């Protein structure tokens, strides 16, 4: 499976600021996703990162709050904008490889704390 | 009804026993199911996928899928303390796009 890295691994941010999270894969992948895992909760899909076009957002998530880029088949960013303490979560990227399967593999996650 | 439902636990089993983790699903998911293990503070790690009715074995792990009853389970034989983690059941949503939906996870504790 692909090796996935995320930067930063963790951060503590002030209310009202923005943070950009990077997801890098060591090989080209067909699909990339961004998830949020709030404390003590399961994973919730934020959006599908589409290569060369606008991301597809799930209900409850909007581009102004969570802008996403995917300039190529190995890299994506998620920005958490105008943060509030409710945005404190682990943010995870996942990928589906180019082998034609459906299996998703997760990056190590970014632990965000908003004060 | 949520797309995928799990008992949150905790499920406690003694070392060496069989741990049985269960998951039910709705008609809003396709027939592709996944079990992930998540240690505290870590990201989910894929254990197994299952697509067909019946059992699929991989080492100490067996996934079972029963489409008629709409449940999928994970059996862990010879449970070890290192198996203590949260186990997440996930399924691909119908409608395309390879979107995964997750259950709330079952916390497993394997006791010495």
Write structural notes for this entry.
The complex is a heterodimer of chains A (115) and B (112). With 115 residues, chain A is mainly beta. Chain A is built from no helices and 11 strands. In chain A, strands 2, 4, 5, 6, 9, 10 and 11 form a 7-stranded mixed β-sheet that branches. A 4-stranded antiparallel β-sheet of chain A has the order 1-3-8-7, with no helix packed on it. The radius of gyration of chain A is 13 Å and the shape is globular. Chain B has 112 residues and is mostly beta strands. Helices cover 0% and strands 58% of the residues of chain B. Chain B is built from no helices and 11 strands. Chain B has strands at 4-6, 11-14, 19-25, 29-38, 45-50, 54-58, 61-66, 71-76, 85-93, 100-102, 106-111. In chain B, strand 7 and strand 8 (71-76) form a beta hairpin. Chain B is globular and about 45 Å long. The mean pLDDT of chain B is 94.
Distance between the termini of chain A: 36 Å
Proportion of residues in helical segments of chain A: under 10%
Q: Return the average pLDDT of chain A rounded to an integer.
A: 94
Helix content, binned percent of chain B: under 10%
Give a short overview:
With 115 residues, chain A is mainly beta.
Please describe the structure with a list of short key phrases separated by commas or semicolons.
heterodimer, A: 115 residues, mainly beta, 4-stranded antiparallel beta sheet, 11 strands, B: 112 residues, 6-stranded mixed beta sheet, 5-stranded antiparallel beta sheet, 58% strand
Write the layout of secondary structure elements.
The complex is a heterodimer of chains A (115) and B (112).
Chain A lengths: L3 E4 L2 E4 L5 E7 L5 E7 L5 E7 L6 E2 L10 E5 L2 E6 L8 E8 L7 E3 L3 E5 L1
Parallel strand pairs in A: 2-11
Antiparallel strand pairs in A: 1-3, 3-8, 4-5, 4-9, 5-6, 7-8, 9-10, 9-11
Chain B lengths: L3 E3 L4 E4 L4 E7 L3 E10 L6 E6 L3 E5 L2 E6 L4 E6 L8 E9 L6 E3 L3 E6 L1
Parallel strand pairs in B: 2-11
Antiparallel strand pairs in B: 1-3, 3-8, 4-5, 4-9, 6-7, 7-8, 9-10, 9-11
């Amino acid at each position: 499976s692909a090796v996935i890295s995320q930067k930063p691994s963790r951060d503590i941010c002030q209310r009202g600021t923005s943070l950009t999270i990077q997801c890098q894969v060591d090989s080209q992948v067909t699909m990339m996703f961004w998830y949020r895992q709030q404390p003590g909760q399961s994973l919730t899909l934020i959006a599908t990162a589409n290569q060369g076009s606008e991301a597809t957002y799930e209900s409850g998530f909007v581009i102004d709050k969570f802008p996403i880029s995917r300039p190529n088949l190995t890299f994506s960013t998620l920005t958490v904008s105008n943060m509030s303490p409710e945005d404190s979560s682990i943010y995870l990227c996942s990928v589906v490889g180019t082998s034609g399967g459906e299996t998703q593999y997760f990056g190590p996650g970014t632990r965000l704390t908003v004060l | 009804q949520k797309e995928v439902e799990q008992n949150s636990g905790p499920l406690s089993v003694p070392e060496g026993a069989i741990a049985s983790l269960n998951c039910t699903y709705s008609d809003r998911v396709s027939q592709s199911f996944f079990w992930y293990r998540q240690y505290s503070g870590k990201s989910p790690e894929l254990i197994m996928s299952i697509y067909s009715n019946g059992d699929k074995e991989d080492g100490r792990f067996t996934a079972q899928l029963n489409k008629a009853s709409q449940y999928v389970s994970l059996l862990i034989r010879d449970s070890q303390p290192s198996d203590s983690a949260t186990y997440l059941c996930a399924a691909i949503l119908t409608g395309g796009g390879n979107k995964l939906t997750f259950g709330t996870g079952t916390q497993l504790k394997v006791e010495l």
